[in-house]
Specification:
The chain has about 200 residues and is of the alpha/beta class. Helix content is about 40%, strand content about 25%. The protein contains 8 helices and 6 strands, in the order E-H-E-E-E-H-E-H-H-E-H-H-H-H. The protein is globular. The two termini are about 25 Å apart.
Amino acid sequence: MSSVTTVVLAGVGGQGTILAGDVLAKVAMAEGYDVRLSEVHGMAQRGGSVITFVRFGEEVQSPVVDPGTADHLIAFEMIEAARRLPLLKREGRLVVNQRIVLPLPVLVGAAQVPDGLEAALAEEGAIFVDAEALACEAGSSKSANVVLLGAASAGLPLSQETWAEVIASRVPPATVEANLKAFELGRAACLKGACR
């Protein structure tokens, strides 16, 4: 097993992908790991593709993630999951929000969403999470990103206590309780096998 853990977070603008990557990086740093973080923003502030790379371990030389090397892919929607799948190792862990955000070419009729997208991701071993539903249950529809972190945390070597501390320090004070609950619901869903 590699001494470096590589996590890719992929979504579109406005989904909280960058905040989620920042939280993950800060959790890993708080646990004593060397961390490298890199972000790529799409053309549009809202709706453009956003990808964040977080690498942590005893010593991390570079934030670069080559195809087929990521240990974890956390996808905030299904089209981005398919788009970024080549980055994931064959035995990597794929956590996918059961949502499709239609890109501009689809919205204007120049392209179509591929048929059988969810089935194709399932064949790749995707762990599906209804992040929006769990976020609403937690009390904040904007906490889907934290639900996904909770789901992903079930497969990461980072303590729940550190996750809670960092989340509480990074979200607006009025949303701390809802975000902590969102994290717990996402984690519990995967630990109990409710993620499908």
